[in-house]
Amino acid sequence: MFEPSFSSLLKQRSFVQFWLTRLASTSANQMLMVAVGWQMYELTGSAWDLGLVGLYQFVPALLLTLVAGHVADRVNRARIVSACLALQLVVAMALCAASYKFSLQGGSGDSGWLSRDFLLGVSVVLGLARAFQMPAQQALIALLVPAPLLPRAMAFSASGLQVAVIAGPALGGVIYVAGAATVYATCIVLFALGMVLALFIRYDRAPTSYARPTMTSLLAGVRFIANHKPVLGAVTLDLFAVLLGGATALLPMFAKDILHVGAWGLGMLRSAPAVGALLMSILLTRWPVSRKVGPKLMIAVAVFGAATVVFGLSTSFMLSFVALVITGAADMVSVVIRQTLVQLETPNEMRGRVSAVNSVFIGASNQLGEFESGATAAWLGPVGSVVVGGVGTLLVALLWLRLFPSLATRDALLTPRADLLNSPR
Hints:
- The protein is an all-alpha fold.
- The protein is 80% helix and 0% strand.
- The chain is built from 18 helices and no strands.
- The chain has helices at 6-10, 13-44, 47-63, 65-72, 77-104, 116-141, 150-175, 180-199, 215-218, 220-227, 229-245, 251-258, 263-286, 293-313, 317-345, 348-403, 405-408, 416-421.
- The model has no long low-confidence stretch (mean pLDDT 79).
């Protein structure tokens, strides 16, 4: 009988390669977004423009969702990830060149390429890359490990992701002292490394013939989610909870105007949720969630909302940091349960399209959530925006108990049906 131990996970060579790919590429992306956010706020001083950075990344993902899912079910998913990282590499090169030219002018006068419109333009390109990368990446992981290993693999993958989310912003904030161009140059190296690693990921892939997408095939993922209540509840819970509770876009305002710390403080604040998420993911790798997953999911979302309220009301850097650490730990429990459930409940031939729809919900809860935070901050101020969002997250957790009882009361992740869907072919 197969023993789903941690040592057996590390023997899955393609999975380890995938883990390293995510580590490099996510570190680069996090560093890049710290620099873009800080530059935008320095150029415009506008909460609205900070929110637009998130919106401009989300719109391409929304528009290309169905096409990206179809492609992920027809094309080698590792090659898709590699191509998307290549596009982000080009973006980093353009930002590096623009920032270097700006620094030569002493950061004043004509900014050349570096402008509000330029930063919004590269945000669109980043959104385009993520539109195809996220569904391919989500649908790939279940093909790299046996089904009994998937909950542990999700937790370990998340731990690598959180290491990158911690190291990326913190390192980006420190390197930013040497100039934004230096941050982007580091991103170039990391994106190139991730691109090469992804090119050599191998997995068993059934041959597929090209088929022109039809509305029936494009909408298959949407229909699948709509007809499976646990999956529908899981993906929409992420959408509404993080859409309301996310405060990432406002961190430059909290760092500069409320907590009175510089770029280094912003990097620490951006890293704080990842610190909690990393610690929790290590625990989940060692002791995967296997029973009472529904109640644990709902409790995690409620804790996330409560910690968000504390962050919004805090004027102490240390208290704010701790509150964000707690949001990260709670969110990690939610992420591992939700993503494992979605992958286990979905047949492989549908995973690309289901993951594409799921990626829109994730994107909405992050990029669109950043826009929502910026817009409400312009109306209520940053503190009011975060507090209202945290309270809204608590209400969502209570509402989902009634709307999706099959999810809220679910006991085990791996059911006989899920084991069948994920058995070797």
